[in-house]
Write a structure and sequence with these properties.
heterodimer, A: mainly alpha, 2 domains, globular, B: alpha/beta, Rossmann fold, 4-stranded antiparallel sheet, 14 helices, 19% strand
Chain lengths: 339, 437
Amino acid sequence: MLDLSKVQVSSSPHIRSDETTKQIMLDVVIALMPALAVSVFVFGWRSLVLTVFSVCGCICFEWLYGLLTHRPNTTGDMSCVVTGVLLAFNMPVTVPLWLVLVGDAFAIVIVKQLFGGIGKNFMNPALAARAFLFSWPVIMTTWVRTRTALPLFTTPVDVVTSATPLSYLKQGLLPDASLADMALGMVSGCLGETSALALIAGGLYLVYRRVISLHIPVAYLGTVALLTYLFPRGGLDPLDFMLAHLLSGGLMLGAIFMATDYTTSPLTKKGKIIFGVGCGLLTVFIRYFGSYAEGVSYSILIMNAFVPLIDKFTMPKYPADRRRLSLKKAKAKEAGPNE
Amino acid sequence: MAHTFPGGIHPDSRKEATCGKPIELLKAPEKVILPVSMHIGAPCTPLVKAGDHVCLGQKIADSTAPVSAPVHATVSGTVTEVAPRLHPNGSMVLSVVIENDGLDTPDPSVHPLDIDTMSQDEIIAAIREAGIVGHGGAAFPTHVKIQSGIGKVDSLLINCAECEPYITSDHRVLLEYPWEVIGGARILQKLFGVQSAVLGIELNKRDAFPVLKTHLPADGSVRLEPLACKYPQGAEKQLIKALTGRDVPSGKLPADVGCAVFNADTAGAVYRLFVTGLPMIRRIVTVSGSAVSNPKNLEVRIGTPIEDLLEACGGFLEPPNKLLMGGPMMGNPLFSAEVPVIKGTNAILAFYKEECPIPSRTACIRCGKCVSACPMYLMPTSIFQHYEKGDIAGCDRLRAYDCVECGSCTYVCPAKIPLVQGIRAGKQRVMDARRKK
């Protein structure tokens, strides 16, 4: 006799892919590791301390929120780890630990959980927290020179500051660092944003793992490249000016890791391209005309707000229906003058 | 270059267990159970009663409805019962139970047909009388498809994609009975009056190409086209897109874009009808899955209880966690092995939990993987959200009715949301709401 005692009945499909949310988030964390390694080299062990601290903070706040609101503990999906790393990457290495905690709490509790948790927040938690932390503008714009010895846990005082490549570009000058230094990350800036090469390596890993598609990064970087090449400032060579813009500030980190955040970017390919182009336009606009040298985080946050609208207008259409609609329009046009 | 369609998924094909195994003939069972509804369309009315003696191939149930297909005795013997029996779809359906006398006495109506002397109408009538329905799974009456397509069809496509994982029944038919498929394709080609028939074959069946090539007619009236290995390549609309580039508009039939699609073994059944005169009484079934001791491809009489098939494959290694009729993407779950093989049964699969988990659902992270996977250009996650909110008008606006229920969205979802399950329910409610209007 055939034993069917264990047979379950459920609706098809009966097989699922192995991919899980946790696996995706883990891949993003792995992709961020090269940039973290470079950061440790450029800014010292303090950057690792800040990153780990930020991750722990995010996990704690998410866990606490679940506990206090009697909701399931969602820390297992690892998305809070990604937020923790990204938030640390968006801060100068000299920030005090308490400010990291403030950022964590804002990102996790206010931006993410109060809007319904993973998948429901309409802004990128790490970027929104960074924007909030600009309530402490001096701390958030203290750019220490590269390879400065810093205390691991206490807040550094009297550090020797240095200008970031972006501040030069703002004045219509080329940065004092070479392009190679900028690509490698040997410049001052937020702790995870400086090395374009390490970030691109992580991005390629994500593309290879099919976690992200190229649409947003290419549209974003392409728009910035085109605009800066066409409209260089201070009479600089367009190519030098363009490359300096691409390699400086948080552009690579933003285009590869922040703008591609699933929850706060459009669902469709067409939507992703529009989103990327929008981010690029706003970034250049802010970098050229804003009072602050960097525009990446604000442009992404602004475009985040447009995502529902972009989704609505880029809803995929069935090709056969599309053709029928255009036929109808064409016919209406033909018939137009006679009527 | 292999043809394909936009979207779709790449599940592990898992066909290795049976693709190399020749079709084995399963002995006719002692008892066959023949439901009066094994096709899409009106159920038939039994023409026999308990105690009647029936011959092999004798018509035992028929209907006057335009969309229906008669049922034939698949063994000779005595009708023991005409009563509701458990159908693979889970409901009780009126069925004719025949006790096999083991003689296979053919019915006088069974004799080869000379197709050259028959008119178009006579050929279609013969296909109807033989109860031939689509062998791919949906079991749409073949004569209805032919009738509705004549005069409109310029592309005749034979579906040899077999994109569902595990299933190899069509693959084996292509290898072992290539002349039947090609012969059937030629009959259909002449019937539609089109220049050629195209066999679309997924590239995981490379070994079928040389075999089929030796049987192709010299006049080029049957062509082979490679298809990319992608699910749901064998879905009607996706196959049409891949082979002709045409999109079947929402709510329209393949014939409306000049296409007719027949499954490989449906063509084979048409060929067999004219050569042997036998109606649809048998089919090839793949029995596979991790829980089956010795997976096989079996040729069985329609109406054979699936326990006979499973026992012929050595039964289960361990009690399975799921038993399916059809493929793992669109197949029906079973809870009893007493249900019979019906006309659309292409596979019986038995799985352990590891192979067919029912994962717990987490929150949508808007990754958009379902949108990229959808072969019908839908936004599964958005439709699902509207459905959950009870917003049926929203489901309608997002074209829930276009969903072909292939399950690609649910398959890819990293948050393990039962997307197609929700969309299916939403689609039903959209249809209900439209009917009320």
